[in-house]
Amino acid sequence: MKGEVRVITQEIWADVLGYVRKNISEVEYHTWFAPVRNLGVQDGSLVLGVRNSFAQEWFRKHYLELLEDALRSLGAQDPQVSFQVLPAVQEAMILPQDPPPAPAPGHPPGPGSRPPPAPLPAENRKSLNPKYTFENFVVGPNNNLAHAAALAVAESPGKAYNPLFIYGDVGLGKTHLMHAVGHYMMERFPEKRIEYVSTESFTNDLINAIRDDKMTQFRNRYRSVDLLLVDDIQFLAGKERTQEEFFHTFNALYENHKQIILSSDRPPKDIQTLEGRLRSRFEWGLITDIQSPEYETRVAILKMNAEHNRIDIPQEVLELIARQVTSNIRELEGALMRVVAFSSLNNVPFSRAVAAKALSNVFAPQAVKVEMMDVLRQVAAHFNMPPDVIRGSGRAREVVVPRQIAMYLIRDLTDHSLPEIGQFFGRDHSTVMHAVAKVTELLGKDGDLLASVNALRSELKDVEDEENSA
Ligand SMILES: Nc1ncnc2c1ncn2[C@@H]1O[C@H](COP(=O)(O)OP(=O)(O)OP(=O)(O)O)[C@@H](O)[C@H]1O
C-alpha cells in the first residue's frame, strides 16, 4: 500500500529547480522544467507532474540523474524521483500565463482553483498574504507591544495610533503584522479599501506615473484608501521626489483620518537623508519594535507551522530546530521545511538526529546553551515537583525555594533579562531581582542549598553537552 503524500514546500522545490537550472541551458530549462509540478513526496520518492507520457519518458531518460543529484544536494541519501502524467485540468494550471480553469459545472472547485469571489474590492484580496493573520501570529515577549498596537489599530483604524510605525530586523514579522491589520479590517468592514505596497513599488509606480503622464491616477489610487500599509519605508532614504510625493499622500490620508502603517528595519530617527517633515510625521503616532524571538516563542512558532501544514513532528525535534535557528523567523520556518523534506526524501521518521543532519549543511551548528524551560524542568525534577507548580502562585516554602533557585540559575546561565525571566514565571522583574539576591546570599550560609545549586549546575551542563552532541 502506498504511504501518505508529504508536501514539499515551494522553497525546497525552488532549491531543486535552482540546482537543475545551473546545470542545463536556459532553453532546456524553460522547455522542460518550467511546466513541471511538484506533487510532493510519497514513500521517499519525489513525485513530479508532467504534461504527457512523452514528457514522462523524456524526463526518465534525460533528467533523472540530474534530479537525483539535486535531491542529494538537499541531503537525500538514496534519492528517488517518479513522474506522473497530469490530468488535462491540472496541466492547464501549470501554465502560469493562463488563468486557472473554471470548475466544471456541478463540480466543486479542485485544489488550487480560485476561491469564490468575495464581496471585496479586488485590490484588497490581491495584496494581502492569506497566511498573515492575527490568528497565525504567535505572541511572545519579543513582539507583544507591536502586536497589541497592531490590534488596537485594527480595532480603531485612524483613531488609536496614526501612523503606526513598526521596526525590526529582517524576517521578524513586520509584514505579517501589517497584513493582519488588513485582514482584520477586511473582515469587519468589507467595503473599506486597503492598499499594501512596498516602498520600492510605490517608487516604481511614481516613476511610471510621471513617465506616462498619469499622476492623477497615481494620486487617486494612494489617496483614496482607508488603510495604507507601506513596507520597508527606510528605502525612502535619498529619494527626494518619492519623499515629496509620499509626504502629500501621508497628509491627505492623515487629514481624512485614514490609517497608515509603516514598517522599517530601523526607527525614523536612524533613517538617513529622510526629510525632517517626514521624520516628524512618522513620529506622530506610535513607534514600536519587534525583537528576535526567544526560545519558547520559536518553539511555539514551529509548532503552529507544523500543525498548519498537518505535519506530525515530535516536540523534541521542534526544540532542536529552535535551538539551531535563533534570529530570523523566515529562516526558522525554512529550517522546519528542510527537516520535513529531508525525512520525506530519505523516507525516515522524524528524529533529533535526522533534524540535526538535515540542518548541518545549512546552519553552522550553534553551541547550544540551556534555555529557561530546561532550567525549570531540571529544578522541578531535582525537587520532585511538577514544573507548573514551581511556576504557579504557591507561596509555601517548599515551592518558593525551588522557584528562587530556578530564577537564579536562569539569570546566571542564560542571556535573558530580568523582565523576560519575570514574564516566564508570571511575575515582575523585581521578584526575580529579589530571588537572585536571596539565593546569592544564602549560598554563603546554607550548605544544603549550595549542594543543590551545584548539583543542578552540573546536571544542566550535561543537558547542554547532550544537546551539542545531537
Ligand atoms: N510571531 C510570529 N508568529 C508566526 N509567524 C511569524 C511570526 N513572526 C514572523 N512570522 C513568519 O515569519 C516570516 C517572516 O515574517 P515577515 O515577512 O513578516 O518579516 P519581516 O519582518 O517583514 O521581514 P522583512 O524585513 O524581510 O520584510 C513569515 O512567514 C511570517 O509569517
Could you describe the 3D structure shown?
With 470 residues, this protein is an alpha/beta fold. It has 4 domains: 10-85, GMP Synthetase, Chain A, domain 3 (2-Layer Sandwich), CATH 3.30.300.180; 134-289, P-loop containing nucleotide triphosphate hydrolases (Rossmann fold, 3-Layer(aba) Sandwich); 295-359, Helicase, Ruva Protein, domain 3 (Orthogonal Bundle), CATH 1.10.8; 372-467, Chromosomal Replication Initiator Protein Dnaa, Chain: A, CATH 1.10.1750. Helices cover 54% and strands 10% of the residues. It contains 22 helices and 9 strands. It has a 5-stranded parallel β-sheet, with helices on both faces. It has a 4-stranded mixed β-sheet with strand order 1-2-3-4, covered by helices on one side. A hairpin with a 2-residue loop joins strand 2 (37-42) and strand 3. The longest helix is centred in the last third of the chain and has 22 residues, at 447-468. The radius of gyration is 27 Å and the shape is flat. The site of adenosine-5'-triphosphate (ATP) has 19 residues, from helix 8 and helix 15. Belongs to the DnaA family. Residues 344-470 are annotated as: Domain IV, binds dsDNA. Residues 95-126 are annotated as: Disordered. Residues 127-343 are annotated as: Domain III, AAA+ region. It holds the Pfam family Bac_DnaA_C.
